[in-house]
Amino acid sequence: MSMSWADARFMLERARGLIRRGLASLRTRGLGPTWARVRRQFARRAPPISRPLWFPAAGPFAPFTVPASEAPCASIVIPVYNQAAYTLACLRALAAHPAAATCEIIVVDDGSTDETGAWMPQIDGLRYHRRPTNGGFIAACNDGAALAQGDYLVFLNNDTVPQPGWLDALLATFDAHAGVGLVGAQLVYPDGRLQEAGGVVFDDGSAWNYGRFDSPDDPRYASLRDADYCSGAAIAVPAELFRETGGFDARYAPAYYEDTDLAFSLRAHGLRVLYQPASRVVHLEGVTSGTDTGSGTKAYQVRNRDVFAAKWKDALARQPQAGSLPTAGSIVRPRRQILVVDAETPRPDHDSASLRLVNLMRLLVADDAHVVFLPADLHYVERDTDRLRRHGIESWHAPFATRPAAWLREHGPRFDVVMLSRHYVAAEFLPLVRRFAPQARVVFDTVDLHFLRELRGAELADDAGLRRTAERTRDREFALMRQADTTLVVSPVEREMLSTLLPEVRVEVVANLHEMATTGLPFGQRRDLVFVGGFRHPPNVDAVQWFGRHIFPLIHARQPDIRFHCIGMSPPADVLALQSQPGIVVHGHVADVGPYMDGARIAIAPLRFGAGVKGKINLSMAHGQPVVATSCAVEGMHLTDGHDVLVADEADAFAEAVLRLYGDAGLWQRLSGNGRENIARHFSMEAARDTVQRVFRHQGRPE
Questions:
Q1: pTM for the complete prediction?
Q2: Mind giving me the DSSP string for 64-93?
């Protein structure tokens, strides 16, 4: 497809933005860090490739052992009728990659006449139950459920090869999400093509295996999602719930539509049916019953559709029209659909803005919105992209999204709200959104007021060139605020400033969002000082250099046993050089900062310029770790010197505050408790819920 005018305009705005940010970076960071940033921006990223499918080695039967527990979390029920070789492969797969969860495996033999009866008793740990007569799939499953001892029932076809991690992913879904009644796996063909990403049911009772024959890596199928039903080839359901709802309905005997009926029954009880792509199972579809609906057991599929349609007539009236083609937008209706665009995939382990964005999207999902995330760089970042998907966020990337204009042309009509994060992202995308999603309300998320941060940095450096750059950034941010329907800032201070400068603009505050953490070690078992902050952010570089050169030497001279731990991604040479001073350790990026939050006695935030609210302070206070900070660092954070934080702006006073807090257990305990109260009151998920609902629930653009 040739490049359109929309594509060309987008690329022109992106080029301008990159040049502007590159020149600003040269002035504030220097050539080396700027060049590293450019290389990172344009680095080629390989597209995601599905994990190679695993299959057990074929071979003659020999006895082996399968996982077993006397107190299982899950009971895996496998109904079988002949096809002993397929059952053997399934059991070998379960034995080769045992789950972390305790389980029992129950094979229910529905009257097989092949080797099944000879082989199954020889498999150690297997619970083998032989029915006296053939009763069909439903009868076999219900028999297995009656025998099961686990908290969860997992129904698994014998013509499957479960992939490593499949069971733990299914079970973890119940813990991670509220109100879940059933979870189904992603089913794939042996050649790797997708067989089913959850099922769609139409108004006449007919069904559709969503995603059939597509790539399982396609973002449409790679996220946790509500489904009309999930095929019973690999599903999990709480055992007590299954029994309370009567199990698989015998009116569908011997088979077909029992799984769809169960899903509808659970939803009628207010429970969710979820498709979990992190649980992958190879399914040799049709091995047992064939694929011909005109004869054999498969013929019951046609008959049972009418039975199902009669039973669920009222519910089916709300389903899509028969013959319509399910799309990424249609299968999640009538839920609100919200598009979020940021410069790159958020990495909550690296910076507070990422943590805020992830938690904001989680709040939207919890408010029954369907959230779609598009990174402007279109990169797939395996761990972080997959994290969003586990939260139920539909996350796109190349090669499935290649040009923003083309992607928005296809998907724009589905969105009720579009949120654009950061002024340079909004400048690129806002014209495309207005063209291809004219019905959507646009929310401009400033993340922080970039111009304010740049202006304060220019004043600190007394640099006229940086001041002019900040003024140009201000003009761009203000223009975007006027074009957007709502602007988000992170502090009341920023909202009050904008209410004076731009009284016509609707501004809402969504601050940093944190979950309360454990309080960690008590005062007497904690040691040292810690700073957490990424060094792609110039205020953090300045803060650490100022602390390391002018404040920490004063602390070290009076108490040389105190060490300063500096944590953050991409520390520049000037920060690394601080390690030449005794007591300073520069760690760089740390995958898990928990031990430092729980074990360091004091967190420091010696920022001399910046804007917004500081995630490093929120993070420490959420862990009950007291903070010594500057006035700039605590701006707009509802903190009071001496009550929930210590504030000092001069080097001598900052060092004195650190030493005082380091030796005063009573003051430390008071600041710790009050700091946690501040997080719960102002920066928790619950504190933001009303504002988020007010901003994102509104339907349609304002008149």
A1: 0.84
A2: -B----SS-SEEEEEEESS-HHHHHHHHHH
